[in-house]
Design goal:
430 residues; alpha+beta; Outer membrane efflux proteins (OEP); 2 domains; two-stranded antiparallel sheet; 9 helices; 64% helix; elongated
Length: 430
């Protein structure tokens, strides 16, 4: 793996530390049967086990192999010919002078002109560097996909915890309500409402557990741990909503891996066009031969030859035109990649700013107010100052607020990684 790819991974790892963790997630305690996984560990697995990254690595290896063949000179040709074979007597020893075979051994070598070998080498070199850029971009995009899968699992774990807390609280409330019903303190309808909410909470808990299992499968696929999917458990904490400096989108995209790879492909296309034009430079083939006459050693001879192609019927117009079209297509692809990169940077910043504002509102008081309202409702209900319907409504609002806060924190975590990936510079290693 190149040094630039390692630097990109380190930059991605630093993304999670841009804002210090403030709110612990539900991963504080990892179950004994679970495989605890931090985001940094998941990034390391992404590099070596992700299927898209592995395909990009194979592309680098193929491009590297192409550079080896492109630099090679044409191989010489050796030919051996038999002449003067009598049609009736044939070949072989005998007294008849015609019963013999003349032999010609020829060695030929083609010499390329028009700097073809150098142009092939330059074309494949730029293509190789572009493939390395594709690998870095696969890691960049993979980190965004990984962030989505990882924080989806962390969010699913948090929702499981919230639903379990709600179900446990309602179970206690049902027990207390049954005692109050026996004492004649509440009506049977109140107990029925609490039991309905308890059953709903159980359904929500089961649904949250199913979402967690699906999130595990998605994360396992991204990091290539499919066999361990049922045991994966995210251990990181939610990042806090701190300050992040905005970068100039146009300046940021020029250093991105995808834009650099597209620019390198333009250079490769330029060399490929020049190589197509060089086809009009005639290659020269030189040959040397030795002719042997069995039984007549005094007549053995040597000879030399030169051959060049004659462009009488075709002058490589199609190859040259194709090279020019491919060059224009490479320019178009570069402009398209730049435009998409600018949009990606701007979208990433917008998502990050929106997520930060949402999390800040929850941290600034929304969660505390929801908790205070739920506590007040519990106190009022215990003292007979609040009906069961109002109590259940307060609990639903509190649980919904906690779920929304967890979703906002997941959005912030994903937006942080997306922003880091959108602005991550790529510097090809020597």
């Amino acid at each position: 793996m190149s040094l630039s790819v390692v630097r990109f991974l380190l930059a991605s790892l630093a993304c999670a530390a841009v804002l210090p963790p403030a709110v612990p997630a539900c991963a504080a305690e990892v179950p004994e049967s679970a495989r605890g996984l931090s985001f940094s560990e998941a990034l390391a697995l992404l590099q070596v086990r992700n299927r898209d990254v592995q395909l990009a690595q194979r592309g680098v290896e193929v491009a590297q192999a192409d550079t080896l063949s492109a630099r090679a000179r044409p191989n010489p040709n050796l030919s051996i010919n038999a002449l003067s074979i009598h049609p009736r007597i044939g070949a072989g020893p005998g007294t008849d002078s015609n019963n013999s075979v003349d032999a010609i051994v020829q060695l030929s070598q083609t010499f390329e002109r028009g700097s073809k070998r150098e142009l092939r080498g330059e074309t494949t070199r730029f293509a190789f560097e572009a493939a390395r850029g594709d690998l870095a971009d696969a890691l960049r995009q993979g980190s965004v996909v990984l962030a989505g899968a990882y924080y989806d699992l962390l969010l699913a774990q948090e929702r499981v915890r919230i639903t379990e807390d709600t179900a446990a609280l309602l179970a206690k409330t049902v027990g207390a309500a049954e005692l109050r019903l026996k004492a004649g303190d509440i009506a049977p309808s109140d107990l029925s409402r609490i039991r309905v909410d308890q059953l709903r909470a159980e359904n929500e808990r089961r649904s949250a557990a199913a979402d967690r299992d699906r999130a595990r499968l998605a994360l396992a696929y991204v990091i290539g741990l499919d066999a361990e999917a049922p045991y994966l458990f995210a251990t990181d904490a939610w990042p806090a909503a701190g300050e992040v400096a905005r970068m100039n989108a146009q300046a940021a995209v020029e250093a991105r891996a995808d834009v650099r790879a597209a620019a390198l492909r333009v250079q490769a296309a330029e060399k490929a066009r020049d190589l197509a034009r060089a086809l009009r430079s005639r290659d020269v083939t030189l040959a040397a031969q030795y002719e042997s006459f069995p039984g007549q050693p005094a007549n053995n001879t040597i000879g030399f030859g030169v051959s060049v192609p004659l462009f009488l019927n075709y002058n490589y117009e199609g190859e040259i035109r194709r090279g020019e079209v491919n060059l224009q297509a490479a320019y178009d692809a570069l402009e398209r990649t730049r435009a998409l990169a600018v949009a990606d940077v701007n979208r990433a910043w917008s998502d990050l700013a929106s997520a930060r504002e949402r999390v800040q509102r929850y941290d600034a008081g929304l969660l505390k107010e929801a908790q205070r309202a739920a506590d007040a409702a519990e106190f009022a209900y215990r003292n007979g100052a609040l009906g069961v319907i109002d109590l259940l409504d307060a609990r639903r609002i509190h649980a919904a607020t906690r779920n929304d806060a967890a979703a906002a924190r997941a959005d912030l975590a994903r937006a942080l990684i997306a922003w880091q990936a959108a602005t991550a510079p790529y510097t090809p290693s020597p």
